[in-house]
Amino acid sequence: MTEKNIRDAANIIADVTGKGTYLHIAMKGVSDKAVHLLVYGVMEKYYTLNFIIDELCEKIKNNLRPYMLVALYCVLYTDKPAGIVTGIVCEALTKAGKGAVKGFFTAVIAKADRADYSLPAPGQKGYEETKYNLPSWLIGMYKKEYPNKYGEIIERSEKHFTHIVPYCEEWEVFSADPNAEKTKTGYFVKNDKEIGKLFADGKVTYMSLGSTMICESVGEVNGKKILDACAAPGGKAVYLAKKGGEVIACDIHPHRMKLIESYAKRMRTKMTVLLQDAMQLKEDFIDSFDVVLCDVPCSGLGVIDKKRDIVINKKYEDILALSEAQKKILNNCSLYVKPGGTLIYSTCTVFSIENGQQTEAFLQAHSDYIKEDEVQYLPDGKGMEGFYLCRMRKN
Ligand SMILES: C[S@@+](CC[C@H](N)C(=O)[O-])C[C@H]1O[C@@H](n2cnc3c(N)ncnc32)[C@H](O)[C@@H]1O
Fold it and tell me: Does residue 340 register a pLDDT over 90?
């Protein structure tokens, strides 16, 4: 680990936590493993580290906090000795023009190393935030929705698994990763490097198990006309096209349409990609699809291990705004389903405000639809994450 790694990580953390930049965007082009370790490590322990900083420092300026987060992460969660961490952090501070605070950092790092702080005990303020590394409003949502198992669900959400869908012979997967573990739709893999080569060749693709289960819920798709109304980056559209569906993939953002096009190209799949707002009626789509998939924009709170920034930057009000958009998308896109056709509503979250409440309200207002299936997948610590799907049939 170098002083530059510390500066890079602190700058990325400042962007994500101060300016609200998405973590995956802030990390774009960063290939250094040490920076990954520092940034994702800090994100994972964000609430605990901040609690400790507030215990150990009477006051800390906002522009120093990202450096302190990285410094304390190194001392408390890596095997680097405190003396070494102090040296590298002080050099990083000097290079960043913050040399004046070296003494302050040295003292705080030493206190952290001596465990000169106490984390809150059960019942004390901050206990659950530091235990689960989540904001209190979000823990409140888990408690309300899952009163008897919220702790389990949160802890199981923290385990990271890489799931691939193969489009090659099984032996190719196993020679790339002999420890690959078969699932209903693909494999959990560990050897990212060798699998990465199959990925680049379009022989496998990374796709979470939950996402594949949403596609599987559509049933037989061969020859069917399918609209993926919110399609970028294209995972489900490609999956359905590979199974023989005639897919039209839409998204509202031109730059995200390009993601669908390059995904389809890498996977050597054909589909039509259109710029289309799913809330706006497109007359020539009315009654014309066998299947309409509304994989709506959502809070992503079912996949927090991959998106730690959302638990830091998202607020409850954001979820309310999203639920309004979801309702409009579902209402509008339901008009595109042929009589007898299928409408799928799906999210990657575990809260009913974006899930069951949406589909319940929709079904009550649309007597031409009946519910055929509804599944709330919960993080199980074995690779399944938090996904929701509701399959409805139009009479
Ligand atoms: C959950 S993601 C879709 C993931 C995608 N189905 C997949 O499997 O790769 C939601 C997508 O909806 C898009 N989106 C947001 N608002 C939209 C709207 N009004 N109309 C169409 N797409 C929208 C976002 O740009 C985002 O790409």
Answer: yes
Ligand 1 centroid from CA 78, angstroms: 37
| pLDDT tens digits along 121-144 | 999 999 999 999 999 999 999 999
Q: Distance (Å, rounded) from C-alpha 155 to C-alpha 52? A: 21
Render pLDDT for 82-125 as a digit per residue (tens, 0 to 9): 999 999 999 999 999 999 999 999 999 999 999 999 999 999 99
Across the range 269-281, mean pLDDT stands at 98
Query: Containing domain of residue 82, as a range?
Result: 3-130
Ligand 1 mutation target, pool 22, 24, 163, 252, most atoms within 8 A of CB: 252
200 domain-assigned: no
Instruction: Tell me if 292 sits within 8 A of 245, measured CB to CB.
Output: no
Residues 123 and 238 in one domain: no
Does any domain span residue 77?
yes
Please state, in angstroms and rounded to a whole number, the distance separating the CA atoms of residues 307 and 79.
Answer: 25
**In whole angstroms, how far apart are CA 267 and each of 175, 220, 290?**
20, 20, 24
